[in-house]
Design a protein that fits this description.
The chain is an alpha+beta fold. It folds into three domains: 179 residues, Roll (Ubiquitin-like (UB roll)); 59 residues, 2-Layer Sandwich (Uridine Diphospho-n-acetylenolpyruvylglucosamine Reductase, domain 2), CATH 3.30.43.10; 231 residues, CO dehydrogenase flavoprotein, C-terminal domain (Enolase-like, domain 1), CATH 3.30.390. It contains 17 helices and 20 strands. The protein has a five-stranded antiparallel sheet. It has a four-stranded mixed sheet with strand order 6-7-9-8, covered by helices on one side. Strands 17-18-19-20 form a four-stranded antiparallel sheet. The longest helix is centred in the last third of the chain and has 20 residues. The protein starts with a strand and ends in an 11-residue tail after the last helix.
Amino acid sequence: MSEPVRFVSRGQVVTVGPDVPHTMTALEYLRLRLRRTGTKEGCAEGDCGACTVVVAELTGDSLRYRAVNACILFVHQLDGKALFTVDDLASKDGGLHPVQQAMVDSHASQCGFCTPGFVMSLFAYFREHERADAESLKDCLAGNLCRCTGYRPILDAGERMFAGGKADRFAAEEAALTAQLAGLTRSRMLRHSTPEGDFLAPETPEELAETLAALPAGDSWILAGGTDVGLWVTKQQRVPRSIVSLGRVAALKRIIDHGEMVEIGAGVTYSEAFAAIAGLHADFARMVRRLGSVQIRNSGTIGGNIANGSPIGDSMPALIALGTTLHLRSSAGRREMPLEDFFLAYRRTALQPGEFVESVTVRKPGPDSRFAIYKLSKRFDQDISAVLAAFHVVLDDGRVKAARLAFGGMAGVPARALRTEAALTSLAFMPSAIEPAVAALAQDFTPMSDMRASAEYRLLAAQNLLRKFCLEVTGDARIGVEAAE
């Protein structure tokens, strides 16, 4: 039986009926169905931030606000949540929200097209923070592009918006909104059927496995955060028969610390996993800060990133270098494998029909471990890597006892440098001794040339990053991370 999608907007429950295609984005629904045109379409791929909206959802007994890109968010993913857009911020009498007033006072709008997205990113920051911090404010706005180059007054507005404290009308309405969202809680799988296809949102891993097993192979998509799947619709114009969302499966959103390792569910977003990732290593946290904007990290999941099978997914080399185990599940049962064995060829993985990524188990670096991640890209923020290297060595009295070196951008899949690892093992870990291992990288990889880098650059850069890692570990020289970026 088909059920309507329900979410809260402007204090009212909005019902999405069967006439809304299962691939309609939240941006399209806002502009074409609700006629709320303040939210703009810029890139339709989650890069520019013009379409930024804020979604609030219940986390326990409290509300969590997060900025997301409406252009790659299906409206069906809003079920049980609250949606805020730039059209909603001013009061009924026309009074501006503190964020809007700060933008006006700081002269922070030029052509104005990007302004709604900036306002909503700042609104999410306002709801989640007590005061502005310069670094986190820059991170907050890194996913919003201003073609007029007006960032300085926008940052000024971010500082100014807290001048009157945290009080706004949304704080006064939180109790009512919390009760409203609690009333939208479902106790069974959401099935929304349209003439174009079905949107299915199971509640448990068992229900998810059964649902996938019952669907025709090859004509169903598994949806995690939508940061890739959304582009299949907006850019490739693809329409599947069914979309199966992981968003309601609570068991896939768990993070469990097992002592020497951390288990992260496939439905955990990068934002939710950030503390656990930072606990693994500071370099991992810095890399996650660069792999996408706040909007992307609020939506994208580690499990989805893995299942997508991209050769340039930044997290994959880091996870492989740390010895991550991948846990898969289907109606036939569970299986596990080393993460590096999951990637078979370009965009081809070991995932079987009806199977899904359940979680990953990541080993924590030990006291004798040395670990580092290096990302080379043309831009610092939100750029696809030309090369990403993750190095993990275990030292015993200055010699390499074990090594795991993994790269992205060097082959059709994220991959370990097995010959280089073998050449490195038992060597004294010092610049004068590791050159045989550096040379072995040419045997491990035959990189390609593309718009991001030439094959020659990639190989030389990979070799130099290994040299850099050795220099930093031994203390022979200290090259700042920024120098390699």
